Amino acid sequence: MTTPSAPTHLPDSAEVNAVYRKVSWRLIPFLFICYTAAYLDRVNVGFAKLQMLDELKFSDAVYGLGAGMFFVGYIIFEVPSNVILQKVGAKVWIARIMFTWAIISAAMALVTTPMMFYVLRFLLGVAEAGFIPGILFYLTKWYPAARRGRVFALFLAAIPVASIFGGPLSGWILQTFHGSGGLSGWQWMFIIEAIPSLLLTFAVLKWLDNSHKVAKWLTDREKFVIEHSLAQDVPTKDHAHSFAAAMKSRKVWLLSVIYFTIAMGIYVNSFWLPTIIQRSGVSSALTIGLLTAVPYTVAVIAMIVNSSHADRTGERRWHTIVPCLATATGLVLTGIFAGSPVMALVGLIIAAAGASTAQAAFFSLPAAFMSGVAAAAGIALINSVGNIAGLVSTSVVGWMSNVTGSTTSSLYAIAALMVVGALLILTIPAKVVNDKGLASTEEKKVVA
């Protein structure tokens, strides 16, 4: 590892922007591709449902519980996984995560009983635990707070992009490969869609660096520019950064509850969107796949525009609150017009765009007052508690669908939770989470 030489002058904004363009082109597209593969493997069960429930005689309740079991394993191992990543480095740990989830995702093709379904979904959650918060923590080691909103949005845009391409791809596999080699379309889907994650395992080991300090593709001067930019976020040595500080912080636990409400909106779209479209009157698996791409195309645009504006203004709360309220509105519209494919799709567009945008904007909030191990543990805890929504949303929607014969009532309930989340964000003082210049160093520490 080379040691950056002492600078002769401090960088100006043009030099800083040039360095971060180089960093972003190196990191973001690759991490985006990795997360796209990850998210596709996580939620493709929503498309498998279109065939496997009839073949295996599973009810909506069995599907809901099985889809939700992913989050049991994910939640239990989330914080430990992120702490390990902080200790051993991103390269090895992210590669390990991707390898294990690829193998388990492909094994989903072997499911024949509800118990096998539950166990493999649980193990998939264990395998993937730590990936999202790990990457978000990793990015905080490269980017200062003022640049994180847009960067987080670009990375998290992999969720809607995975759905834009994954929906039509999954629908095409279901329809085209069904019966080939004695396997059903849903079995082929699990096998084929696990391959990119497996290949990316080896790409991670080649492409990622644990930090800018050991990146051979950066000059000493460029490393200094990054160090200087990051130093602006941590001007004093007593900035809280311990594991205990994150676990004891009331702000961290409040943000965990808020993220739970946002995640409810995300996962009701991810796991039930194909079913909602199908029940609105669309029967072709390929057409359903193509229609699921529409809401997420709008979502990509909305989340990047919103987060870029938040970075420019330094305002974080309302850039999260408004998308939460938009999600609630979209879910209500989807419920009201459940029998109309066109109007239901309009509601789903608003809901998907709102939920994705709220998620991208949200993760700038915890990053505003945590650093070091606290950031690794705190972001993991928030994501872990928030992802209980994955278990709750899939199970509750499945149960209510069985009881009422439709998903409408559950959409209203989740819309109400989104409103609650928006109101809770207002309880966090703007000066704590807004960018430098709007909050003091002391207010941005991890304190209860």
Account of the protein in words:
The chain has about 450 residues and is mainly α. The protein has a single domain, classed as Growth Hormone, Chain: A (Up-down Bundle), CATH 1.20.1250.20. The protein is built from 20 helices and no strands. The protein has helices spanning about 15-45, 45-55, 60-90, 90-105, 115-130, 130-140, 145-155, 160-175, 185-205, 220-230, 245-250, 250-280, 285-315, 320-335, 340-360, 365, 370-385, 390-405, 410-425, 430-435. Helix 2 packs antiparallel against helix 9 (about 185-205), helix 4 (about 90-105) packs antiparallel against helix 6 (about 130-140) and helix 8 (about 160-175) packs antiparallel against helix 13. It starts with 12 loop residues before the first helix and ends in a 15-residue tail after the last helix. Mean pLDDT is about 80; it is low at about 235-240 and about 435-448.
Tally of DSSP helical segments: 20
Structural class determined from secondary elements: mainly alpha
CATH homologous superfamily identity: MFS general substrate transporter like domains
Q: Give the CA-based shape.
A: globular
Q: How far is the first residue's CA from the last residue's CA?
A: 39 Å
Features of this protein?
disordered C terminus, single chain, 20 helices, globular, mainly alpha, 448 residues, Growth Hormone, Chain: A
Summarize this structure briefly.
This protein has 448 residues and is an all-alpha fold. The protein has helices spanning 13-43, 45-56, 60-88, 90-107, 114-128, 131-140, 145-156, 158-176, 185-207, 220-231, 243-248, 250-279, 285-313, 318-336, 341-362, 364-367, 372-386, 388-404, 408-425, 430-433.
